[in-house]
Amino acid sequence: MQEYINTDRQLHWLSQEITKVIRAYLPPKDDDSHTNLAFDALGNRITGQWVSTQHGILLFVLELSPLQFVWVNRNQEVLKTIPLIGKNIREVRSEIAESLSGFGLDTEPYEKKLHYEIPEYGFEDKPVLPIPETGIRLWADFRALANTACMQVSEYFQTPSPIRIWPHHFDTGIYIVPNEKTGIGFGLAMEDAMAGAPYFYIAGYPAQGKLHYNNLPHLQHGKWIVGENWSGGILTLEELLPVSYDQREDILKIFLQQTLAWYLAQ
């Protein structure tokens, strides 16, 4: 599990550069969704959003293997590659700024600090190290599983919802409003003090008042957490790690079926 956590942290840190790019050149939105990222399982990469440049509409992405930033066009042709291994973050940012200038973009908006902070992981001032392939595969498998599960929830309610990575907390998630009573948030989060491991989460947000987590059903997989700051169901990756990908899908499906049934009954 530690290899997954280490990969999560390094990709969280590097992905902030994508967020800085799209924040700089996309119209701002009140919910900050203009800074959202996504995991592209087909391309094995973390993507930003399309940016208009003098060279057309381009996408800035972080390829996971090899670890590098890449600019691509609508035809997925690579226009610029920025290798990362062995470079410190100042060198990386300098090359990103150079690429922005090359595409006719003013670099000043990119160079501004983000409006939030992420945890310090201890490697920020060191050269970028390669991520072991086993860590990349494990991370990609779980993020692909998160994408699939988010899509299944959306299809269950026949309510389209974008599946995005929120760059601040780096969770893959969706928010669904299935009826007039409540909204439901579901996703895959990084390790934190509450769960003690990376975890899938689900929580309800009523249109009026607050949910009372009474008479909670026993979950076949995962558990309920009822706290002052957050309440909902969680399923840690530690429970999923020992089994096959297909079994992970089945366990996650049971977790969703049980928790969603309770939320819809409230």
Distance between the termini: 35 Å
**How many separate structural domains?**
2
Order of helices and strands: HEEEEEEHHHEEEEEEHH
Average pLDDT metric: 96
Principal-axes geometry comes out as: globular
Radius of gyration: 19 Å
Number of helices: 6
Poorly predicted tracts of residues: none
Helix content: 25-40%
How much beta, percentage-wise? 15-25%
The secondary structure category is alpha+beta
Count of DSSP E strands? 12
* Most strands sheet: 6 strands, antiparallel
Question: What's this, in brief?
Answer:
The chain has 266 residues and is an alpha+beta fold.
Fold and architecture overview:
By secondary structure, this protein is α+β, with helices and mostly antiparallel strands. The protein has two domains: 2-131; 134-265. The protein is built from six helices and twelve strands. It has helices at residues 2-25, 89-102, 108-111, 133-157, 237-240, 245-265, and strands at residues 38-40, 45-47, 51-53, 56-63, 68-72, 78-83, 164-166, 171-176, 182-189, 199-206, 223-226, 231-236. Strands 1, 2, 3, 4, 5 and 6 form a six-stranded antiparallel β-sheet that branches. Strands 7-8-9-10-12-11 form a six-stranded antiparallel β-sheet. The longest helix has 25 residues, at 133-157. The chain is globular, with a radius of gyration of 19 Å. The model has no long low-confidence stretch (mean pLDDT 96).
